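Subgroup meeting minutes
Present: P.N., E.W., G.H.
Scribe: E.W.

1. P.N. recapped why we're keeping a running log of single-chain structure predictions: easier to compare across weeks, and new members can see raw inputs and outputs side by side.
2. G.H. added today's entry (92 aa).
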Amino acid sequence: MPFSIEEDPWHREGIQRKSEHIKQRRAQMLIHSCIYYLMDNNVVDDFTWQKWADELAQAQKDFPHLCKLNFFDDAFKDWTGATGCHLPMTDP
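Output recorded in log:
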């Protein structure tokens, strides 16, 4: 008897990977925005940062049900990828 989609372990694994990817991109946006805006430095080029920012914006648009991660949910609620200057950098 086949699994329902909710019981399918491959489906659950895919959801977990998508959630982890969103969390990873949020962490990267926070870390690299802090380095850029507070330390006036960078460790990734602008192209890479923008690629990550756009990936995050698209993932959150495509999977809004996976964005409640208890990991800066409010800070990334309306994330467009345009800038990280509004992100919380000193008070997590």
